[in-house]
Amino acid sequence: MPQDPVRSTTEIEVRYAETDQMGIVHHANYLVWFELARTRLCTLSGFHYHQIEDLGYHLMVTSCQVGYRRAARYGDTLSIDAWLAELASRRLRFAYEVRRGEELLATGITEHVWVEAETGRLCRTPEPLREPFRRLAAPSMGADS
C-alpha cells in the first residue's frame, strides 16, 4: 500500500492587514501562507531554509497556482497543509490546502527548481539534500539522481 508524503500544517489567524474593506482575505496572501507552510515542511527534512541557502542553493519558484473555493475572513483561524507532491532530479512540486476547520477554502501548487546560489545555474538536487527530501516525498516518488 503506497505511503502518503509527509505533511506539514501551519496555523494562522487572519490579520486585518490581509483583508480588504469587506474583511475578505486578498488573494495574494495565499501565496505568502504557502511559503510559510513550505518553509515549515522543509524544516521537517532536517534543513531549515536558511541552512539550504548556507549550503549554496536556492529553491527558485517557477510557477504557482491557486484555486479559490470559499473566502477566508478577518479573524478566521486557518490551517495550511503543505506536502511534496512531486520530486524529480532538478524540480519539486509542492501542494497546499487551506482550511477553516474541515472546510476547504483553497488549494494550490508551487513548482521550484534547484539553483546554485553563486552561479544562478539550474542544478540537480544537492547531494546533502537528496535523502532528506526523498523522506518528505511519498516512497514511490524518489528523485532521479
How would you characterize this protein structure?
The protein has 145 residues and is an alpha+beta fold. The chain has a single domain (7-137), classed as Thiol Ester Dehydrase, Chain A, CATH 3.10.129.10. It has three helices and five strands; from the N terminus they run E-H-H-E-E-E-E-H. A five-stranded antiparallel beta sheet has the order 1-3-4-5-2. A hairpin with a 3-residue loop joins strand 3 (77-87) and strand 4. The radius of gyration is 16 Å and the shape is elongated. The protein starts with 6 loop residues before the first strand and ends in a 9-residue tail after the last helix. Mean pLDDT is 92; it is low at 141-145.
Topology (SSEs and partners):
Layout: E1 7-13, H1 29-44, H2 49-54, E2 57-68, E3 77-87, E4 91-100, E5 103-116, H3 127-136
Antiparallel strand pairs: 1-3, 2-5, 3-4, 4-5
Which properties best describe this structure?
145 residues; alpha+beta; Thiol Ester Dehydrase, Chain A
The name of the CATH topology is Thiol Ester Dehydrase, Chain A
User: What would CATH call the homologous superfamily?
Assistant: Hotdog Thioesterase
SS-based class: alpha+beta
**In percent terms, what proportion of residues is strand?**
35-45%
**For the terminal residues, how far apart are their CA atoms?**
25 Å
Largest sheet, in brief, is: 5 strands, antiparallel
- How many DSSP H or I helices? 3
Shape, please?
Answer: elongated
Give, in spatial order, the strands making up the sheet with the most strands: 1-3-4-5-2
Q: How many strand elements? A: 5
Mean pLDDT: 92
How many structural domains? Answer: 1
Helical content stands at: 10-25%
* CATH class categorisation: Alpha Beta
Instruction: Determine Rg (CA atoms, Å).
Output: 16 Å
String of helices and strands: EHHEEEEH
CATH architecture: Roll
Low-pLDDT segments: 141-145
